TrEMBL record:
<protein>
    <submittedName>
        <fullName>ABC-2 type transport system ATP-binding protein</fullName>
    </submittedName>
</protein>
<dbReference type="Pfam" id="PF00005">
    <property type="entry name" value="ABC_tran"/>
</dbReference>
<feature type="domain" description="ABC transporter">
    <location>
        <begin position="4"/>
        <end position="229"/>
    </location>
</feature>
<dbReference type="GO" id="GO:0016887">
    <property type="term" value="F:ATP hydrolysis activity"/>
</dbReference>
<dbReference type="InterPro" id="IPR027417">
    <property type="entry name" value="P-loop_NTPase"/>
</dbReference>
<keyword id="KW-0547">Nucleotide-binding</keyword>
<keyword id="KW-0813">Transport</keyword>
<keyword id="KW-0067">ATP-binding</keyword>
<dbReference type="InterPro" id="IPR051782">
    <property type="entry name" value="ABC_Transporter_VariousFunc"/>
</dbReference>
<dbReference type="InterPro" id="IPR003593">
    <property type="entry name" value="AAA+_ATPase"/>
</dbReference>
<dbReference type="InterPro" id="IPR003439">
    <property type="entry name" value="ABC_transporter-like_ATP-bd"/>
</dbReference>
<dbReference type="GO" id="GO:0005524">
    <property type="term" value="F:ATP binding"/>
</dbReference>
Length: 287
């Protein structure tokens, strides 16, 4: 069963092909990371899913129904956009009330308790919020809205390290109480990697990968130790990153670990480690 179904979708802006025959299935109750370099087509895809723009070709369905001017299908989705669309003169609390009118499942109590937790004064006007607090405000709405699908486009824009950590923890906490489909589009891949179950990588308007993060991380590993021994170890293997510090070297190898590798590493006194999602992403999207 899928909640979002995208088939053969192409979107052009003049001569720019922002999305090129994209097929994608989003399953229920998973946290997805939508990853891609600048201009890859992430926002275009999210705008298409939420019917803000229309494809030149292809079909987009939510819960089996076409999204085009379909209020019922679209009411299942909440889209936290990077853009700021809230009226600047209104107060945070007024925006919470306004959201509840459109999304009756909006949990006001939770929104207010989150505001306290993050130190967001709900009596402030939107225009008085700093960039970070503006993201917190939008993030709180997204977490409280209780739609079947929640889309977050760059949700941690301007947040300091503490607030980012708090926000990621809150996503997991929220999801464990109320599993649903969450799609997070972000550039801060390493930070969000523990939150994600599945990664979707877009490159030049095409979906080049859709895999569980666990599976993805098992496709590579790091190995570290004395420089010459590491060089000996990686002979004939595909290396996608390396770091040298004096006589010490760490490399990222693109392959599954196996017993043979483990034995060889042991012989050479090398240590295995986990690859970072960011490293794999760079390798996938670099060329
Ligand atoms: N309204 C528009 N008019 C013209 N070109 C557009 C428009 N929106 C997007 N594009 C182009 O489509 C391509 C995909 O853009 P999109 O905003 O979807 O990328 P993105 O992956 O969200 O990038 P970023 O990470 O930088 O936000 C880019 O080449 C962009 O310039």
């Amino acid at each position: 069963m899928s909640v979002i179904n995208i088939s053969g979708v192409t979107k052009k802006f003049g001569n720019t092909v922002a999305l090129d025959h994209v097929d994608l299935t989003i399953e229920p109750n998973k946290i997805y990371g939508l990853l891609g370099r600048n201009g890859a087509g992430k926002t275009t895809l999210l705008n298409l899913i939420t019917n803000r723009i229309f494809p030149n070709e292809g079909d987009i369905r939510i819960g089996g129904e076409e999204v085009f001017e379909n209020e019922k299908a679209l009411s299942k989705v909440f889209y936290m956009m990077e853009e700021d669309l809230y009226p600047k003169n209104d107060k945070v609390i007024e925006m919470y009330k306004w959201t509840k009118e459109f999304f009756p499942e909006f949990d006001m109590e939770y929104a207010i308790s989150l505001s306290e937790k993050f130190g967001l004064n709900v009596k402030k006007r939107i225009k008085q919020l700093s960039t970070g607090y503006n993201s917190i405000f939008k993030g709180i709405i997204a977490l409280s809205v209780n739609t079947e699908i929640v889309i977050l486009d760059e949700p941690i824009l301007g947040l300091d390290a503490n607030h980012r950590e708090m926000f990621y923890r809150e996503i997991i906490n929220n999801y464990s109480h109320n599993p649903r489909t969450i799609i997070i589009s972000t550039h801060l891949i390493e930070e969000v990697s523990d939150v994600l179950e599945e990664a979707i990588v877009i490159k030049d308007g095409k979906v080049i990968l859709k895999k569980s993060v666990e599976e993805l991380l098992s496709t590579a590993y790091t190995v570290a130790g004395e420089l010459s021994k590491v060089d000996q170890y990686v002979m004939g293997k595909e290396v996608i990153g390396e770091q040298v510090m004096g006589k010490f070297k760490t490399v990222t190898v693109l392959e599954n670990t196996n017993k043979k590798n483990h034995n060889l590493a042991k012989e050479l006194d090398l240590e295995f480690g986990k690859v970072e999602l960011q490293k794999l992403f760079i390798n996938l999207t670099n060329s």
